[in-house]
């Protein structure tokens, strides 16, 4: 009787827990490169037939993001044509294929352990395949959770997706640390002379030949689990209404909200879904612009340059065990993501974004001023933690909450796809430019690249705060159907 009157919270939680596995894989796939990139770099440098430059390594470290752009761009089409559930199943399969292919790119066509330009291309293809899965999951997981969740806890539940992303990053930091064990990452000295000439003699050959493979392959376990479990969750009730299956939609809404509340919700969904889709600009250009700029700023603030290259950054700071520092940073990120999860419904979306932007600016500018200065390593480390933690309670989860809920029902699939595609475009730009930009010098041995890179990120953080204050609407307490009227009033 309790379930029919009030709905089943256990049922809702079970749905969300499966969906956020997609977020965990998102974090796992994008951060696995942090532990593997040095071994991978040394492996491909060993081939004398081509020069594996910093720019080429930046591309290889970020190639999954090309797939993310493709996947997010396709997410609206797949979510609308196939449904949210089947699109997420496809994402799970792509994760699985990418994990195994990245672990052994030589499969069928190349000699195992022999680097070449052709093998590099194949490796990047597998990473792009995984990126397509990430792009699909990044757009559809928060959309799916937002469409299943009751209004009063929607922000909190969508925030759990970001928690899963950060938890996935922490898990892979720890997995990479465990795989590395007593081994050490290589120290790259020069380019184009084979491993003997380019890798410090003290470097561990195991990490160059094998370690990075285990790191990529470890993703196959959570990927297979996600693809299996997604088969057992229901389709989004809002998609079912768009697909003309109102009885099924009512049944799912009743299990989540209770029968009486479900019968109140269903007509409001029906009223805002008069057709399956409307033109993208039906509610004005500002609606789409705000969604795009939320995505752009989430990446342009530079956070993924820290998350993807954390061990390299801590190593350059002179830390004795960069992987340990990376795991510590992952724990801090988890704790501050929980701040957003438990305050987003009380404080609202905008205050968290504004305060997070200002905190990031302080942290980024602190890194810019202190990085590379003897005796200030602790201040630099604390500045990185402030920078990262401020992102985790603000732009990390809240951007996804807003993208999941800010668009009207009839354009949500297409609008989310456009917004998230821009997110991955800027993620790729930031990630692929970080290494060469960080290593820039005006004169030999100066720290120009260090302070310029983080100074630029700090300025962008201040612009992000201004953007949120002036243009982003507060959505706390509003239903997804309220978004239709909100943007009609703003036209």
Summarize this structure briefly.
With 491 residues, this protein is mostly helical.
Explained architecture:
This protein is mostly helical and 491 residues long. It is 76% helix and 0% strand. The chain contains 23 helices and no strands. The model is unreliable at 190-197 (pLDDT under 50).
Biggest beta sheet attributes: none
Overall average residue pLDDT? 81
The rounded Rg comes to 23 Å
The total count of helices amounts to 23
Question: Strand pairing plus helix content: what structural class?
Answer: mainly alpha
Number of strands: 0
The low-confidence runs, each spanning 5 or more residues with pLDDT under 50, are 190-197
Could you spell the SSE succession in H and E letters?
A: HHHHHHHHHHHHHHHHHHHHHHH
Fraction in beta strands: under 5%
The separation of the N and C termini measures 45 Å
Helix share, percent: over 70%
Q: Shape from CA axes?
A: globular
Q: Mind sketching the topology for me?
A:
Layout: H1 2-6, H2 9-31, H3 33-45, H4 54-62, H5 64-81, H6 84-103, H7 117-148, H8 154-180, H9 195-198, H10 205-217, H11 220-229, H12 237-242, H13 246-257, H14 259-272, H15 285-300, H16 303-316, H17 322-347, H18 349-370, H19 377-392, H20 395-405, H21 412-438, H22 448-471, H23 482-490
Helix pairs in contact: 2-6, 2-7, 2-8, 2-11, 3-10, 3-16, 4-21, 5-6, 5-7, 5-21, 6-7, 6-10, 6-11, 7-8, 7-20, 7-21, 8-10, 8-17, 8-20, 13-14, 15-20, 15-21, 15-22, 16-17, 17-18, 17-19, 18-19, 18-20, 18-22, 21-22
